[in-house]
RNA sequence: GGAGGGGUGGCAGAGUGGUCAAAUGCAACGGACUGUAAAUCCGUCGACGUUAGUCUACGAAGGUUCAAAUCCUUCCCCCUCCA
């Protein structure tokens, strides 16, 4: 039902690596590789996602401060929703009643939902963890909510999520080898239960999540277990939780290689632009992060020449756009001086425009990476990226 | 003309003898943000000095006191009510 059109890709000699003799329902075409970097296409019921892909985060059924139309216009082909938050409000049954999350929020492209696994870590103060699952004391009204792998699958199914994530425990950092192993092993048991409870549908899929903190042997055990169960895609979890880029890259130097080559690899929660570039070079296909949207609300603008704190006094009389050549509404029509002014006045428009710009920046970066892989120019693209990012300070001096 | 209230750091506003270079909020300046409890959080915010510390400061000028933003005297200015 999702016919591949290889003739439209920039490369005519596409390598088709997708295993066809399987029952899984989410199709991934690995089109090309350059060293470890990969170019691909992920086919879902709601459309195609070109990888490497960045997914804006829309936790509560909205990418904060953006219309779904704008998210699409900024170049996003898929976005995130969140099981925990939508379970609390408005509840998965209501979303289902309203026709599913796509219809409810007016986004007809693919949606990936996180399972609540991140909240197991981020809301550790208001939850209780057992082998059976996790009980949250709602941060909204204190009501108790129980989330098990089975419940998480049920909720994500009712939300009509294209990509369901296994319920896991995002292992906090730092963790001792013993702690990381215990946590990872439970996540693997939960992965088994998630798979058993997941309902297969055409154009929908389930991703497993590798854990193991920064320990190579644990990452291997986790990967082996996930492969044994079998998933439509494989995520790397428990990274970008405080270990720093150097240590994260050390893990990424080996962890993606432990996962099946013909399935998408998703690095959860990452990251800054340079994190993403480094991870693509290490074989990651999918990313999500609150960075562009949250930063849009906290006055940080990402640009080719590095990040700008738009609140800084030096922008007060700067009549240049935030980023020369960017075609987002902020850069097309407004100056740094104006967005600085809006930000200083706490105007919502500052948040809207900066968020849009940041999402557009991220999506442009991903497009650049995809085109560079397709056009055999990834090395020079990446070299230029780092050179431009470093140039930031000089660019700011005029 | 009569009665009363008040002048504190960029602003608002605590403080009424030593623990005050002066609470708190705002503004200003800078930083952080990674599967979103975030339009959030953190730091700095009289001057000089890295620190110890020194100096200048609560309308102005005098005074009382070991010690004054705080008490007294005079002056200047603002506000409210009554005529």
Kindly report the average pLDDT value: 93
Strand content: 15-25%
Helix coverage percent of residues? 40-55%
Radius of gyration: 21 Å
- Unreliable stretches (pLDDT < 50, length at least 5) are 1-23
Strand order of the largest sheet: 4-14-13-12-11-10-6-5
Strand segment count: 16
Overall form: globular
Please report the number of helical segments: 15
Q: Describe the biggest sheet?
A: 8 strands, parallel
Termini distance?
55 Å
Query: Which structural category do the helix and sheet elements fall into?
Result: alpha/beta
What features would you describe in this structure?
The chain is α/β, with parallel strands linked by helices. The chain has helices at 68-73, 83-88, 92-97, 101-105, 117-122, 149-159, 177-197, 216-229, 244-252, 273-281, 291-297, 329-333, 336-344, 348-374, 378-396; strands at 27-34, 37-44, 47-51, 53-56, 79-82, 111-114, 127-129, 134-137, 144-147, 163-165, 205-210, 233-236, 265-267, 286-289, 300-301, 308-309. The strands form four sheets. An eight-stranded parallel β-sheet has the order 4-14-13-12-11-10-6-5. Strands 1-2-3 form a three-stranded antiparallel β-sheet. α6 packs across α7 (177-197), α7 runs parallel beside α8 and α14 (348-374) runs antiparallel to α15 (378-396). The N and C termini lie far apart (55 Å). Residues 1-23 have low confidence and may be disordered. It binds one RNA strand of 83 nucleotides through residues 55, 57-60, 64-65, 80, 82, 85, 112, 114-115, 117-119, 121-123, 126, 138-140, 165, 168, 170, 209, 235, 237, 239-242, 248, 266-272, 275, 287-291, 293-300, 309, 311-313, 346-348, 350-351.
């Amino acid at each position: 039902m999702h016919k591949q059109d290889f003739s439209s890709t920039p490369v005519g000699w596409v390598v088709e690596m997708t295993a066809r003799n399987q029952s899984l329902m989410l199709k991934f075409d690995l089109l090309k590789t350059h060293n470890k970097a990969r170019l691909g296409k992920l086919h879902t019921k709601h459309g195609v996602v070109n990888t490497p892909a960045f997914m804006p985060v829309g936790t509560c059924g909205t990418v904060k401060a953006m219309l779904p139309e704008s998210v699409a216009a900024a170049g996003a082909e898929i976005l995130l929703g969140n099981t925990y938050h939508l379970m609390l409000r408005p509840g998965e049954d209501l979303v289902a009643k309203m026709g599913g999350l796509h219809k409810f929020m007016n986004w007809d492209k693919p949606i990936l939902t996180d399972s609540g696994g991140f909240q197991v870590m981020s809301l550790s103060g208001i939850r209780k963890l057992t082998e059976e699952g996790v009980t949250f004391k709602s941060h909204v009204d204190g009501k108790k909510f129980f989330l098990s792998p089975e419940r998480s699958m049920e909720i994500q199914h009712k939300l009509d999520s294209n990509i369901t994530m296994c319920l896991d425990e995002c292992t906090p950092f730092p963790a001792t080898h013993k702690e990381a192993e215990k946590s990872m092993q439970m996540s693997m048991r939960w992965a088994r239960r998630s798979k058993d409870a997941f309902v297969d549908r055409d154009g929908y899929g389930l991703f497993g999540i590798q854990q193991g903190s920064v320990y190579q042997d644990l990452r291997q055990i986790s990967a082996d277990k996930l492969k044994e169960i079998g998933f439509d895609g494989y995520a790397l979890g428990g990274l970008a939780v405080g270990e720093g880029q150097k240590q994260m890259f050390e893990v990424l130097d080996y962890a993606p290689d432990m996962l099946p080559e013909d399935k998408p690899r998703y690095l959860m929660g990452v990251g800054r632009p340079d994190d993403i570039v480094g991870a693509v070079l290490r074989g990651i296909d999918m990313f999500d992060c609150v960075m562009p949207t949250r930063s849009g609300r906290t006055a940080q603008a990402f640009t080719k020449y590095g990040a700008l704190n738009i609140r800084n006094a030096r922008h007060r009389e700067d009549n240049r756009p935030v980023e020369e050549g960017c075609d987002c509404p902020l850069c097309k029509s407004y100056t740094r001086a104006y967005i600085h002014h809006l930000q200083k006045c706490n105007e919502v428009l500052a948040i809207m425009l900066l968020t849009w710009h940041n999402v557009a920046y991220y999506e442009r970066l991903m497009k650049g990476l995809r085109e560079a892989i397709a056009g055999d120019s990834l090395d020079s693209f990446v070299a230029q990226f780092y050179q431009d990012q470093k140039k930031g300070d000089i660019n700011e001096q005029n």
